[in-house]
Amino acid sequence: MKTVFVTVGTTSFDELIEHVTSAEVIQELKTRGYERLVLQVGRGAVLPAADSCSQLKLEAFRFKDSIVEDMRQSDLVISHAGAGSCLEALGAGKPLLVVVNDKLMNNHQLELARQLHTDHHLLYCTCSTLTETLRNMDLSVLQPFPPGQPKNFANFLDKALGLK
């Protein structure tokens, strides 16, 4: 079953959960052949019920000891732009669409997403452009992130955040 896994990490990003479960986004996912939507909603106030989506099989949870299996079983990961979530998805070798929370002050998430996009490792958008990004996305342009090199990722983060 073609699956999308959405993660907000340990944060609260209700706007992402609301957008990804909107009729427009659900229709776009269905059009692209996705049949299952798994949501990790973190500390957010929004926890959609399994029966709230008639077009896709919906599962939602707050936290698990590990989301490795959820990522492994997914065909697309939609994530907030936290460095840990990005690294986990890229390390799993899954196509990644990062949704930047543009409401955050001093938003380093945008810098990280922009650099990883420039290097062709992920696609990124905001909540307001999520539907359009899904409609136009071409996952074939994405290149794998070199695995097992935490030092390289740390250097990459420093570069993306302007620390080097």
TrEMBL record:
One of its GO terms (cellular component) is endoplasmic reticulum. The gene is zgc:92907. PANTHER family: GLYCOSYL TRANSFERASE-RELATED, N-ACETYLGLUCOSAMINYLDIPHOSPHODOLICHOL N-ACETYLGLUCOSAMINYLTRANSFERASE. It is found in: Endoplasmic reticulum. SUPFAM superfamilies: UDP-Glycosyltransferase/glycogen phosphorylase. It comes from Austrofundulus limnaeus. Its main location: endoplasmic reticulum. The lineage of its organism: Eukaryota, Metazoa, Chordata, Craniata, Vertebrata. Residues 3-147 form the Glycosyl transferase family 28 C-terminal domain. GO terms for molecular function: N-acetylglucosaminyldiphosphodolichol N-acetylglucosaminyltransferase activity. This is UDP-N-acetylglucosamine transferase subunit ALG13. The keyword RNA-binding does not apply. GO terms for biological process: dolichol-linked oligosaccharide biosynthetic process. Its EC number is 2.4.1.141. Keywords: Endoplasmic reticulum, Glycosyltransferase, Transferase. Belongs to the glycosyltransferase 28 family.
